[in-house]
Predict the structure.
Amino acid sequence: MNFIKTFLASLLAFIVANFAIFMIFIVFVAGIAALAGTSITTVEPGSVLKIDLAESIVDQPVNDPLAGFDPMSMNVQKSVSNMQVMRAIEAASQDENIEGIYINLTGAGTASASMLEEIRNYLKRFKESDKFIIAYGETYSQGGYYLASTADSIFLNPAGQMEWRGLAAQVMFYKGLLDKLGVEPQVFRHGTFKSAIEPYILNKMSPANRTQMETYINSIWGTIVEGVAESRNLSIDSLNMYASDLSAMQPEDALDKRMIDALKYEDEVEDVMREKLALDADAEIPFVSLGEYIAAKPYTPTYSDNKIEVIYAEGQIVQGNSENGTLGSTTLADQLAEARMDEEVKAVVLRVNSPGGSALASEVMWREMELLRQQKPVIVSMGDYAASGGYYISAPADAIVADATTLTGSIGVFGLMFNAENALQNKLGVTVDVAKSNPSADMNGMFRGVTSTEREFIMKGIEQVYTTFVNHVADGRNMTFDSVDAIGQGRVWTGNDGKRIGLVDQIGGLHEAIAIAADKAECIDDFMVREAISEQTGLAAILNSLQMHISDRKMRKEMGVFYEDYCKLRAMMDNQGVQALAMPIKIQ
């Protein structure tokens, strides 16, 4: 017996020791790979800042200890945040060693529409420095071209292609699948336009949803076309005609229609830059990437007792703590409370990038926003999405700043349950019986439909939450209940339309929101920006991160195009009670 105990103890120690060694090796490799991407320490005179959308540009700074690390391939893909990009481009405009910016759009980018809009605005401010901006691409996506249109010169590979065809929004519907499985979706909602549940009950868009989708994508397309028209001195009508008849997508056609300046290979574009830099024909151009420049020029703000706190509200809203890309009510409420009690924090900018989620969690965060607003200025900066629950938590702000392409509004709520009784019985031969003390004791299960009494109770809760939601918006935006209700009903709007109907105060990005916060705090000439980031620490953080990366990679590979919809449905089903959620729209 003692021998067996000793053997088992030794075996356990061996497993633990080897696992620990493996973890140290993983972290060591990730660290070496990360350092390899930030080896530059100086910026040479005559350098060119290279913006390559193949770099991962994210909104919220990454606090994952293994961020960008693929444990299967042992590769690290560095990411930079919106704030870092903003500071880098601002610094480059004043840096004597930076002569210009080279936008290379050859790689596949991860930047979203609102992110492209904000970077584009940073580039427009950079142009005030009288330094050059040159853009090149083997192909131009519509978003990439929108960004590149700010350049002094736009070049396209002679064998490349322009995408200029307008925008489309695609929605995947699952009603047919649920019918085949015998699963009955049970829906409760307030809002004619509340479309988050439509994929489970319809085979195509409802007329109301189609109306709001077409309005939404036309507004975004209008923003893109107006920006390009202004930068390239082309008419809006011409640009729309080119998109409708596909007459600007071939290289020669794009050149003929003045959407680009010349057809050149990348080496020829580099020759153009050498001329601007007064370099010899065979001289190497001292490029510096965004990541390298950020590492070489770390942001060191002048210290001030007046702090503008930037807090990030990103992800689908859930109760509890933020985990695996979700926005937890406890996590955000704690950050808002800390900022409220910190005397050095003179104002707060809440950067919202959320389609919403749990209505109860939204209410918890709304309360902390309201308490904060009573003591110091609070400005909301909206990114890609600030809809439904994302707008719920934004409503108390002193001012709301949104990108023109932000998806916002969706003031509406719903509940969703699935009845799998027939599916289990008819497909698997499984039946469920229950013993209960009262008729509705099992109403939250998936093994029967709801009764009329239960439906009445659930709808009463839906109406109460909707009324509360509308009242919060009315109070925060100084509007009447009826006026909010008229633009509510679950309807989504772009930032541009949101400004027109009173949901948004100003079109702009994080840069503008920070300026407004400092102005309202009366410290515009003396403040520093501080970002509130929840840091994971210790071995537990590393283990959690590694597990998440491995499982996420496996799920993405197995589920393909269904992965994102699955994640959102899973988060929705994990939430208890009424949902204030707008399903993100996939635009191509």
About this structure: The chain has a mean pLDDT of 86. The first helix runs from residue 2 to 36. Residues 65 and 117 are 29 Å apart (CA to CA). The chain has three domains: 1-35, 44-165+246-296, 307-579.
